[in-house]
Design the sequence.
């Protein structure tokens, strides 16, 4: 699977990269929402893991654009230190797949990948 990881923190991206690549998948990284949108315009991704709080363009704005304009069926998972009950109200209008609390466990990532894997695993 081809997976996009979007987070302004390089350590968070690295942790997700190692976890996902350890499962045999390809990872592309972006450090803000603007870069994520450009990557989604140019490439096909099977899943996006999107940080909520980022400079330049936050996860809400990027997810909204991706889901409404580019690829409505692309599964986007919000990765955040927030609990879902603490989410800003505007997130209710975005069609994201789920919320993952940082740090995201290997089991959670593997479960999500298996849920969306349609025989495209690179292993």
Sequence:
């Amino acid at each position: 699977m081809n997976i996009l990881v979007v987070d302004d923190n390089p350590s968070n991206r690295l942790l997700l990269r190692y976890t996902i690549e350890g499962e045999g998948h390809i990872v592309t990284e972006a450090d803000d929402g603007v870069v994520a949108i450009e990557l989604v315009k140019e490439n096909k991704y099977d899943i996006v893991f999107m940080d909520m709080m980022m400079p330049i363009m936050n996860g809400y704005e990027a997810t909204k654009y991706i889901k409404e304009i580019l690829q409505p069926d692309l599964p986007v998972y919000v990765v955040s230190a927030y609990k879902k009950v603490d989410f800003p109200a505007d997130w209710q209008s975005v069609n994201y797949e789920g919320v993952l609390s940082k740090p995201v466990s290997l089991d959670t990532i593997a479960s999500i990948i298996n849920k969306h894997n349609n025989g495209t695993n690179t292993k």
User: Anything to note?
Assistant: The beta strands are 2-6, 26-30, 47-51, 76-80, 98-101. The CA atoms of residues 47 and 74 lie 6 Å apart. Helices lie at 10-22, 33-42, 59-70, 106-116.
